[in-house]
Design goal:
Elements lengths: L4 E8 L10 H7 L2 E9 L1 E5 L3 H15 L2 H13 L21 E7 L4 E7 L5 H11 L4 E3 H10 L11 H11 L16 E6 L5 E7 L20 E4 L3 E7 L1 H6 L2 H10 L4 H15 L9 E7 L4 E5 L5 E6 L2 E6 L9
Parallel strand pairs: 5-6
Antiparallel strand pairs: 1-2, 3-7, 3-13, 4-5, 4-8, 7-8, 9-10, 10-11, 11-12, 13-14
The chain binds glycine.
The site of glycine has 12 residues, from strand 10.
Length: 332
């Protein structure tokens, strides 16, 4: 399947239009700026771990033509990556040494499902999809999510930290200072949003959450509207970074609503980061949060609080890791 489309819209930014302005002056003032590149189909994912995830999502989309299958299968790659310390059961534990996972999935028709504070489940994104498809609920948490997983035939994995996570946890225990860490190894959470050739949207978001968090802490990733929001009428957005700051501004929902009001995905991401910064003033220097957005035409945007955020982009003309712009400039 190769239903690709690439369009560059040119916006004439002249203030004129008035016959009172002399032709020579008019031509000096005219500036033609490419503002929106649109691609369908397209997959966007947070961080460098989004590259292999996007490949899998792309392959799945080609095979099944189903954008929900694509985002689910895509993020499962990250959930299975033994070296990943911020997604899946190999992620860093909470301060009690226990790995708890959060995940959500959403379709452009408004269907959604999520799980939070789950243990022993290798693929929380698939469990979130089962919540969406096999229950009348949106969110299951903790022990209830575990029981549902068993009823759905999921295997429970042994609770044992991965060697990398164990080593990091032992080092953390030396001081055991309660200062949860975000942006570990320059990544945190995989949020993936995708659009198919016909403009159907879906998204998936999955994480082991903030390293050394309090037991029971839940971040933005499983909260519909915070870590993920998708609406076929408008677009989709997903988030990464310090969940508390993202929850407080309903970050992904805010981006979609700003796009509904006419902002481009890039403008919507930037406005949302400005809102987050304004609401987190006291602690902002220690905060990283980043957003990705796509609209129903396939235009995209990304923006973060701090430098260092990147995202993986996959469409017919490009598969690349792209550096995001940020609110604060590079330090030093
Ligand atoms: N963004 C992931 C978390 O805060 O848990």
């Amino acid at each position: 399947m190769n239903h690709s489309s690439r369009r560059i819209f040119l916006r004439n930014t002249t203030l004129a239009g008035s016959a009172l302005i002399a032709p020579n002056f008019l031509s000096c003032q005219q500036k033609t700026t490419p503002v929106l590149e649109t691609y369908k189909p397209q997959i966007l994912s947070t961080w460098n771990h989004g590259m292999p995830a996007n490949n899998e999502a792309w392959k799945t989309l080609q095979q099944t033509g189903n954008i929900v299958d694509a985002v689910e299968q895509g993020v499962r790659v990250t959930e299975s990556d033994p070296d990943n310390l911020s997604v899946g059961l190999q992620g860093l534990p909470d301060r009690d040494g226990i790995v708890t996972l959060d995940a959500s999935i959403m379709k452009g028709d408004g269907s959604c499902g999520s799980v939070s504070f789950v243990r022993q489940i290798k693929h929380p994104i698939t469990l979130a999809r089962r919540v969406m498809e096999n229950t009348p609920h949106v969110m299951l948490s903790g022990e209830g999510a575990r029981r549902f997983a068993i009823a759905e035939g999921f295997a429970l994995e042994t609770e044992q930290l991965s060697p990398k996570a164990e080593a990091a946890y032992q080092k953390w225990l030396e001081n055991a200072q309660y200062k949860p860490v975000v942006n570990v190894e320059n990544h945190d959470t995989i949020g993936m949003i995708g659009i198919d050739a016909e403009g159907r949207l879906a998204g998936a978001c999955t994480t082991s959450g903030l390293a050394y968090k309090m037991h029971g802490r839940v971040g933005d990733s499983p909260i519909i509207g915070a870590g993920l929001y998708v609406d076929d009428e408008v677009g989709a957005a997903t988030a990464t970074g310090l969940g508390e700051t993202i929850i407080k501004i309903c970050g992904s929902f805010l981006i979609v609503e700003l796009m509904r009001q006419g902002r481009s995905p890039q403008e919507a991401c930037e406005e949302t980061v400005r809102r987050l910064v304004a609401k987190s003033k006291a602690t902002i220097k220690d905060v990283q949060a980043g957003f990705l957005a796509i609209n129903k035409d396939g235009a995209f945007g990304a923006y973060a609080v701090q430098p260092g955020f990147n995202f993986a982009q996959h469409h017919p003309a490009k598969q690349a890791l792209v550096d995001s712009q940020s609110y604060f400039p590079q330090h030093g």
